[in-house]
Design a protein that fits this description.
232 residues; Rossmann fold; nine-stranded mixed β-sheet; 9 strands
Length: 232
Amino acid sequence: MRIACLQHASFETPGNIAVWAESRGHSIATTHLYRGGTLPDLADFNLLVVMGGPMSVNDESEHAWLAPEKELIRQCVRAHKFVFGVCLGSQLIANALGSRVYRNQAKEIGWMPVGLLPAASNSTLAKLPQQLEVFQWHGETYDLPPDCTHLAQSEACRIQAFEHPSALALQFHLEVMEDGVKGLILHCASDIGTGPWEQPPGELIEGLSKNREATRTALFAVLDSVEARVRK
C-alpha cells in the first residue's frame, strides 16, 4: 500500500504511523506543506494521512496550501480513497466535508480519557477499549459532518472521533512519540495555561512513559482496520 502523508509543522511528524507502515511493508511519502511541498496526485497513493499542526483550518490567508489541501481531501472522498486525519487533520476533514471548525469550550492539552460510543463497535475503532487515555493538544472543535458517524467523546470535547465511508478523523494523537511530545512543548508551550484540561510539561512527559505501549497498540489496531477498509 502506498501512503501519502501531509505534514504541517516540523514537529508534528507521522511518528508511529511511519513505524506501522514499515512494519506492514507499506511505503510512506511525506509532503512538508510548511516548506512549500507539492500536494500529491490522487494516483500517487492508496491512503492519505493528514497530520496535526498549530494553525487553524480557517487560516487560509496565512497558509495558502490549506485551501488546495481541503480540495484534495474532497477529491479523495469523491473517489472513495480513504483519508485518515489526526488533530488538525481531523479538523481539515470535517471542514472539507462541510462542517465549521471553531474554538472549543476549553483547550485539551495532556493525557486525557476518551470514551467510545456504541457506534464505534462497527467502525475502524472496533478493536479499541471502551475508554482509553490519549494525548491531546487542541483548542478547536467542529460539528459532525453530514453522512458521518460519531465514534468517541470526552468531557471537554464532544466530538473526539468520527468516521465517513472514506475517512477516519481523530482529534487525539495515537501516533505520538517522545520527540513529538517534546517538540510540541518546545514550540507550543505558550498554549498551556491554567484551564481544567491543561497539563504542565512535566506531566506530558510522564504520561508518555505511562501510556507509550498502550497508545502504540491502539494506533496499530486502528491502522490495521483502516488498511482492511482500503483493500476492500
